[in-house]
Amino acid sequence: MFNKLVEQIFQFGKTEFKSATEEIRKVIDEMSLDDFKIVVRQIGTIPEVIEHDSTEEKLYSKASDIVLARCFRELGMKSRALDERGDSADIIAESKSGYNYSLVADAKCFRLSRTAKNQKDFKVSNLSDWRGSENEYAVLVAPYFQYPQNTSQIYSKALENNVCLMTWEHMSIMIEREIIENEHFSLESLWNSSQMIARDRTLVFANAKTCFLNRIDGYVAKKIGVSEEDFLDILAEYKNLIVCRGEMEIEFWNNCIGEIEKLTREEAIEELIRAKKLHEKIGAINSYIVKLRK
């Protein structure tokens, strides 16, 4: 089902973006729960077949917002992906079980070929600002193994601003285990996890930048009713899934290399010019100069 969603992104990517977004929203919201679970397991990794900074990449990002909004709904909350872009949150969710809280959320997806990532890639501080005064919590959802695994400023920023650092794997596991917020079971403590970690007196300022995903693992494990050891076994299955995805993405690039090696000298030159968008850059400069001359 994930591959079918990617195909539809390419199909709808040829139309106007707002219309394409609505088509993708319809596809995601109407797919069966079993199909949706497959998508959640895969959505955090952007396929290499989608070109960087392309219309399809922007539509994929929007699709991930819509997927995350449905994730919150599957967890028993009221949620929607917002149409606005720019300096605002992408998703808003609220409890509908009488707990009287709401949250803003941001979905992050990365390529397996994307290596260096920093605080700006995760926008922790921005997410805190987007919460405003009307929402209690801010939740970032990114691929588990794409978070910095040792130290990073994103962890100290999350603790400082009470931004919950969740992962697609955490969301997927809870949905697989049919975790649903109701009048007898609240998920609020999860969204408040960074504040609980920050209150831990054993956490000194010197190690505030240390990765604390293992603490989040413990909170999620408690919510789904398994030991932390069993939770790590479940997480290992997701790691194997990523390894399989990685092998597929490597095959894609190896095929690209094979196609390039078949090109004539003239074809290779033209392909390099196109890849570097040199004609577009020349055209942009020319347009600027024409305006100045007028």
Which properties best describe this structure?
alpha/beta; single chain; five-stranded mixed sheet
Give the CA-based shape: globular
**Run of helices and strands:** HHHHEEEHHEHEHHHHHHH
Query: What is the averaged pLDDT score?
Result: 89
Based on DSSP secondary structure assignment, what is the total number of beta strands? 5
The profile of the biggest β sheet is: 5 strands, mixed
Helical coverage, percent range? 55-70%
For the terminal residues, how far apart are their CA atoms?
Answer: 54 Å
Tally of individual helices? 14
Strand residues, percent: 5-15%
Rg calc: 21 Å
Structural class: alpha/beta
Low-confidence stretches: none
Give the strand order of the largest sheet, numbering strands 1, 2, ... along the chain. 1-2-3-4-5
Q: Secondary-structure map with pairings?
A:
Layout: H1 2-12, H2 17-30, H3 33-42, H4 55-74, E1 77-81, E2 91-95, E3 102-107, H5 119-122, H6 124-131, E4 137-142, H7 153-161, E5 163-167, H8 168-176, H9 188-191, H10 193-198, H11 213-224, H12 228-261, H13 265-275, H14 278-293
Parallel strand pairs: 3-4, 4-5
Antiparallel strand pairs: 1-2, 2-3
Helix pairs in contact: 1-2, 2-4, 11-12
